[in-house]
Amino acid sequence: MNDVLLSASGLTKTFGDFTAVDGIDVQVTRGESFGFLGPNGAGKSSTMKMVAATSPPTGGDLRIFGLDPVTDGAAVRARLGNCPQQDNLDEEITVEENLHVYGRYFGLPRKVIRERTDELLDFAQLTERRKDKVEPLSGGMKRRLTIARSLINNPEILLLDEPTTGLDPQARHVLWDRLFRLKRQGVTLIITTHYMDEAEQLCDRLVVMDHGRIVAEGSPRSLIQTHSTREVLELRLPVDDHLHAADLVEGIGERVEALPDRLLVYTDHGDGTLEAVHARGLQPVSSIVRRSSLEDVFLHLTGRTLVD
């Protein structure tokens, strides 16, 4: 049990009559990269705030490092790093000053802060910008600085809420590389993300949340194997609306999903399924056989309807 850093049993969070988190069970072990996936309103942020010891649970049991975050909040927060969804850097001071100020919040000696600042600026590839004001930095640089700042206290768990939202592809991949390095150094990562490729890249294990509950748990590969098929055949037929065309391929593949612009046929053998489509006399305008992805699992479990 010493390797279990986070343990939640029946964890619940309510706001008046609204239940944001509805009795979830979670365990995260040391050195693991663990993800929370779910649509807006699924309960991810409420869960992360409870884990960060900034919002008390309404019910259930939550232990972080074996401590109760309600009664031992300060001790828990001292061992956490928290990277919020929105960068909240002080843009009127320099890059290195942001790290110095944050280090003082933890009561670290100035010598330790200087050493950690040098290490973290090198880690975040910001050494050459250390004397620059934060305001003119690019979005990717600000995000790397926010993560570097969250590591100033050498945390055992790093909480990352939507770490690459709004970044361009190059910045996202640089950040993924930094986070992978952290994991190899033994830092435990807990991540929320809307990007399925990010979850597949970064998470050893994850849960899919919907309406405050956990609807699936496992590694990205095991979730795909359990909740989807090996391949997906995407078909565009010469029809005006594919929503009413699913019966044209009924019985082909394990499952058919009709979207306005295409049909998705879930199958273990995409090329053979396409041959079966042709055998029915259908001539698709276009067809693609691709590997099933975590996004297919996510949409199957949570639906395609927008949640405001």
In short:
It is found in: Cell membrane. With 308 residues, the protein is α/β, with parallel strands linked by helices.
How would you explain this protein's 3D organization?
- The protein has 308 residues and is α/β, with parallel strands linked by helices.
- The chain has two domains: 4-219, Rossmann fold (3-Layer(aba) Sandwich); 229-291, Alpha-Beta Plaits (2-Layer Sandwich), CATH 3.30.70.
- It is 32% helix and 27% strand.
- The chain is built from ten helices and 13 strands.
- It has helices spanning 44-51, 73-77, 95-105, 110-123, 139-150, 169-184, 196-202, 220-227, 270-279, 294-302, and strands spanning 4-15, 18-29, 33-37, 59-64, 80-83, 157-161, 188-192, 205-210, 213-218, 231-236, 255-258, 263-267, 286-291.
- The strands form three sheets. It has a six-stranded mixed β-sheet, sandwiched between helices. The chain has a four-stranded antiparallel β-sheet with strand order 11-12-10-13, covered by helices on one side.
- Strand 11 and strand 12 (263-267) form a beta hairpin.
- Helix 3 runs parallel beside helix 5 (139-150).
- The longest helix is centred in the middle third of the chain and has 16 residues, at 169-184.
- 38% of the residues are buried.
- It comes from Janibacter indicus.
- It is found in: Cell membrane.
- Keywords: Antibiotic resistance, ATP-binding, Cell membrane, Membrane, Nucleotide-binding, Translocase, Transport.
- Residues 6-236 form the ABC transporter domain.
- Its main location: membrane.
